[in-house]
Design goal:
Layout (H helix, E strand, L loop, with lengths): L1 H5 L7 H15 L3 E12 L5 E6 L4 E6 L1 H4 L11 E11 L4 E11 L3 H16 L18 E5 L4 H13 L5 E5 L7 H15 L4 E6 L13 H9 L4 E5 L7 H5 L2 E2 L3 H8 L3 H36 L3 H44 L3 H39 L2 H6 L4 E4 L16 E5 L4 E5 L12
Parallel strand pairs: 3-5, 6-7, 6-8, 8-9, 9-10
Antiparallel strand pairs: 1-2, 1-4, 2-3, 4-5, 11-12, 12-13
Helix pairs in contact: 5-9, 6-7
Main location: cytoplasm
Keywords: Cytoplasm, Exonuclease, Hydrolase, Nuclease
Organism: Chitinimonas viridis
Length: 451
């Protein structure tokens, strides 16, 4: 017993246990179909659906995420018996075993849904659902065709809507049963007949809501082929907004209801009348502006329009006036020329030279020039004498003549201070007349102690 307690047995956390159980369930149990009744249904604000599937003996929690729930062709509700395609998993946070629903259908309709999905994949692979092959609806159709049953409530809704929106448009009805045996062939035949007659511009294929069995004629391949081959644009208005049929995917445009289909193919008469009224008002205003402009131009041209005789008279008057103006201009030009000539002669007489007067002026200028030269010569001689006296005063030879002499060292430098002499140094003495050599035999004597 003690050996068992002391053995190293691993201890798992709850998270590890739940994670291991989840992996085991997802590996061991494949994707499967489970049937049951919906209960405890909750549709969250995020779009996820939480509910339970139950039968008489048990129940299991289920979750269907928003991206899957959006693809359901019906609305889940309490008590509805369904068949769910689910993966078995475990919600680790609570340790709850649950089903992760990927697809769901009402119970008992598995074969129909399988046929629906199979045909949908086939036609999609052929490109019948491609947006590129969809044709636009005519903006102003000449006539509208309707393929539906004469007893269908949808027919009354469509006709009422067309009468309200576009009462001027003719409507051609191609009657056909919309459910039951052979309804699909009749629907396809009416679509082809509408194309053969070529009496409408757009075609509505419609019926009211119902179960999947009621709408099955619009899931038949023959109807889908007829819509795809139609040269006329086709609008599908089958069932309610949540109902999707093969005809909806093949048609050029899907309407959520038959009434919406009628609104899509018909222009709004009141809107068109308002647009027409606006265009008429704009056209009238444009016409009035053009008319006013033309009237103003006509008045302008009428004022400019002159009788040829009157025009000749005016031209003669203008010519005479021009002649007078030309004569006056010539007279003014001649008078101006005479005045300028007289003025020029007067100025010439004022500046014409007089030889006798000019001779006197020239003699005076010569006399002034001779006097100025004499004064300048005297001034320069006086300045020269002054400069010579100053130069003589500064001549060193004159200083020597007064008894002074110059003392130079052997290198030719003048001796200005006795302290710079050394015993035995050779000197050169320069006098006013001649030179002599000397040698320093005594030490220099301080200034003031010589005598």
């Amino acid at each position: 017993m003690s050996d068992m307690l002391s053995s190293p047995t691993p201890v798992w956390s709850v998270s590890e246990l739940n994670r291991a159980v989840k992996g085991l369930l997802e590996r061991e149990l494949p994707l499967m179909w489970v049937s049951g009744e919906i209960s405890n249904l909750t549709i969250a604000a995020s779009g996820h659906c939480y509910f339970s599937l139950k039968d008489s003996g048990a129940q299991v929690r289920c979750v269907m995420f928003r991206n899957r729930a959006m693809l359901l062709p019906f609305k889940p509700r309490e008590g509805l018996k369904v068949e769910a395609r689910a993966a078995v998993t475990l919600y680790e946070a609570r340790g709850d075993y649950q089903l992760n629903i990927e697809a769901m259908r009402p119970a008992g309709l598995g074969a129909l849904y399988e046929a629906y999905e199979k045909l949908k994949l086939k036609l999609a692979a052929e490109g019948l659902f491609e947006p590129a092959r969809k044709r636009p609806l005519p903006a102003a159709p000449r006539a509208i065709g309707i393929v539906t049953s004469l007893q269908a409530a949808a027919l009354r809704d469509v006709l009422t809507t067309l009468r309200r929106r576009a009462p001027q448009l003719p409507v051609v009805l191609y009657p056909s049963p919309v459910q039951g045996e052979g309804a699909a062939d009749k629907l396809a035949a009416m679509i082809r007949m509408a194309n053969a007659r070529d009496e409408v511009d757009v075609l509505i294929v419609c019926r009211g809501g119902g179960s999947i069995e009621d709408l099955w004629s619009f899931n038949e391949e023959v109807v889908a082929r007829a819509i795809a081959e139609s040269a006329l644009p086709v609008v599908s208005g089958v069932g309610h907004e949540t109902d999707f049929t093969i005809a909806d995917f093949v048609a050029d445009l899907r309407a959520p209801t038959p009434t919406a289909a009628a609104e899509l193919v018909s222009p709004d008469r009141s809107l068109q009348l308002a647009q027409l009224q606006a265009m008429q008002t704009g056209l009238l205003r444009s016409y009035q502006r053009i008319l006013e402009n033309r009237m103003q131009r006509l008045d302008y041209l009428a004022r400019r329009l002159i009788h040829p005789g009157e025009r000749v008279v005016r031209q003669r008057q203008r010519l005479a006036q021009s002649s007078r103006s030309l004569g006056l201009s010539m007279a003014r030009l001649m008078e101006t020329a005479r005045w300028r000539l007289a003025h020029g002669q007067q100025r010439y007489r004022g500046i014409r030279p007089a030889p006798a007067q000019l001779g006197q002026v020239l003699a005076g200028l010569k006399l002034r020039l001779a006097r100025a030269q004499l004064r300048e010569q005297e001034r320069r001689q006086s300045r020269l004498g002054n400069l010579a006296g100053r130069l003589e005063a500064l001549n060193p030879q004159a200083v020597l003549a007064r008894g002074y002499s110059l003392v130079e060292t052997s290198t030719g430098s003048l001796v200005r201070d006795a302290q710079q002499l050394r015993h035995g140094e050779r000197l050169r003495l320069r006098f006013a007349q001649g030179e002599a050599a000397a040698v320093v035999t005594e030490a220099p004597v301080e200034q003031g102690s010589l005598f």
